[in-house]
Amino acid sequence: MTEALRTRRSSGLIVMSNDVSGGRPFAPQLLRTSAQEAAERLQLALDSGAVVGTWVWDIVADRLTGDERFARTFGLCPKMCASGMPLKKVTASIHPDDSVKVYKIIEDALLSGVTYRYEYRVRHLDGDYRWVEASGRIERDINGEPVRSLGILLDINSRRIAEVERDRLNELLRIFTAAVPGVVYAKDLEGRMLVANRGTAQLIGKPPEFFIGKTDLDFLDDKDQARILMETDRRIMQNNASEQIEERVNLPDGSAAIWLSTKAPMVDDNGKVIGVIGSSVDVTARKKAEEAVRELNQTLEQRIEQAVLEREQVEDALRQSQKMEAVGQLTGGIAHDFNNLLAGISGSLELITKRLSQGRVGDVDRYVSVAQSAVRRAASLTHRLLAFSRRQALSPKVTDVNALIGDMEELIARTVGPEIDIKVVAQPDLWPALIDHAQLESSLLNLCLNARDAMPNGGRIIIETANASLDECVDPDHGVAAGEHLSIRVTDTGSGMSPEVVAKAYEPFFTTKPIGAGTGLGLSMVYGFVRQSGGQIKVESAVGQGTSVVMHLPRHTSALAPLDAEPQSVEEPAHRSGETVLVVDDEPSVRMLVTEVITGLGYTCLEASD
User: Fold this and answer.
1) Which residues pair with 265 in a beta bridge?
2) What's the mean pLDDT when you consider all of the chain?
3) Domain boundaries, the chain
4) Contact 81, 69 (CB under 8 A)
């Protein structure tokens, strides 16, 4: 008697075995299929496409045979696979994460099923896992016991990869839409809602599960509105072009609103339109505001014209004020120096007169030397003031910036006043720069005056120089090449500026000083000079923490040009006599002195005032 024994192997798979001692095998005709059935299965395999193998599993003998494609798919030897292999050896190629599920599906099919289909990953000869779909059928004997299974393998690797990517993109889209304010959504080609954010649910007045997977006609109460929305979506997908439109929407509370919607076709990697995406914002309040603005346009235009006229008048006044302010600041700053120089000259002359009247000429030479020294200092100062006040195109020269700042230190100190402490921190071996001396002096003085105004109760101004690369200091502006630059930093301990004020600091006529205390042109003039010199300027400030203004000037690699020096004494020419010289000067004292000197040289002089 034949006894069908079902035993559960360690793998969890139910297999069949027969005890044939004294019994009889099952009828062979039960294992045969008709030619029509075989043809149908063959046609099924051919029609399915992407077939990568077929197999027959003799369940009773636990021998699975497969064609060459099946063997390649599972990474098996084709000959061994053709002659038959145990199921366990074949399924060893299945991904560990999928094997338990595969055995469970086979077990269920052996117990009660007829057909089965499942997807899993299988390891190829190259070691990579690929997705396949197995479709099989269980054949049973007259007692209903499983005896054989036939099936085919389909390559679904590309599809599964696409599904994973789709799921990933859907999750990203879900996260994105949840984070974006307003209304954000995506629909498929049929207009079914794929994903939507919280704003969409609030607009519709129902939870996402109510409208996801449905069209506007399915979930909107106003069918006319739904048809208009869907027609717009279809037009955008057909034209494959984005649009920005205003849509009237009926809200859940019964009120109406105007929404500004931006819609665009959603395309796949091949550029094929697969849906539409959109975002909308409520512009009802804005539309009302626009209407109010239109009503005020006429009076507003008149106000603007009046404001422009007043601004032009103020700008003219400020320009004149700037000229007067510059003169006042300079003259006030150097008045003490000139008074000292004049005191030295006047005192020396008085002492010379007194000693000569007393017949004491021993100290006359010393007094003359003091007076001449004061005259040379006055001439040097006058020369610097003339250079500072030039109004002409830039005349760049290779400049030792440290030396220039050193020469200006006393002038700056006199200009800002005794309440301000001046400190210069110069880097040794500072690179030279090709700049206009006078404009740099003007810029430094402007920055120091601004620093002084920020410290009404006194403080400190630090002038620093350093070598640096521009891309290490600030982000290069357009047209300013990165590279080696030298920096001049003017720092004060004043009240500082807010970020809003710093953002407007370079604007002409922008000032935070009281009326009459500044024109707002100083820093813009410095900005123009630095940019014209191929450099860059930056303001660093915080309220209550002072301000630093940094000028970055390009390094110049040529040799230094000699700096302007004080007038040098020259060798007197040989005295001549018998010639006549016309001396013309509108200042009588100067004309008299020049005449005396020339007459002393043996010339005959004629004087004229003009």
Assistant:
1) 276
2) 78
3) 3-155, 171-282, 292-389, 391-554, 572-610
4) no
φ and ψ of 160, to 5 deg: -65, -40
Cα dihedral 121, 123, 128, 131, rounded to 10, equals: -20
SS3 153: strand
Q: For 171-282, which CATH class? A: alpha beta
Structure tokens at 238: 């057909």
Side chain identity at residue 491, one-letter code: T
Listed residue (453, 520, 451) closest to 490, CA to CA: 451
SS (H, E, C) 278-315: EEEEECHHHHHHHHHHHHHHHHHHHHHHHHHHHHHHHH
Round to whole Å and give the CA distance between 52 and 310.
85
3-state secondary structure 317-351: HHHHHHHHHHHHHHHHHHHHHHHHHHHHHHHHHHH
For position 511, what pLDDT does the model report? 64
The reply to whether domains 3-155 and 391-554 share a CATH topology is: no
Topology (CATH) of 391-554: Heat Shock Protein 90 (3.30.565)
CA atoms within 13 A on the CB side of 110: 22
Between 81 and 13, name the one with better pLDDT.
81
The residue whose two tokens read 């920096």 is 487
As its CATH architecture, domain 3-155 has 2-Layer Sandwich (3.30)
Tell me how far apart the alpha carbons of residues 162 and 268 are, in angstroms, rounded to a whole number: 11
Q: pLDDT: is 105 or 564 the higher one?
A: 105
Beta strands 433-435 and 397-399, pairing class? antiparallel
Q: What six digits make up the tokens of 142?
A: 């007259």
Neighbours of 160 (CB within 10 A): 15
Per-residue model confidence as pLDDT tens digits over 354-377 = 778 887 777 778 778 877 887 887
Is residue 221 within 8 A of residue 214, CB to CB? The reply is no
Helices (H), 474-564: 499-503, 522-532
Number of neighbours of residue 280 by Cβ within 10 angstroms: 22
Mean pLDDT of the region 96-120: 89
Task: Give the number of other Cβ atoms within 10 Å of residue 8's Cβ.
Answer: 10
CA nearest 148: which of 117, 122, 110? 110
Q: Which helix (H) or strand (E) holds 606?
A: strand 604-608
pLDDT in tens, 312-354: 888 777 666 655 555 555 555 566 667 777 777 877 788 788 7
Strand-pair partners of 249: 257
- For 54, the token pair is 């077929």
- Give the Å distances, CA to CA, from 357 to 352, 362, 364: 9, 13, 12
Return the pLDDT at 564: 45
| CA–CA gap between residue 314 and residue 600 (Å, rounded) | 58
Place of tokens 């849906």: 275
pLDDT tens digits along 131-151: 999 999 999 999 989 999 999
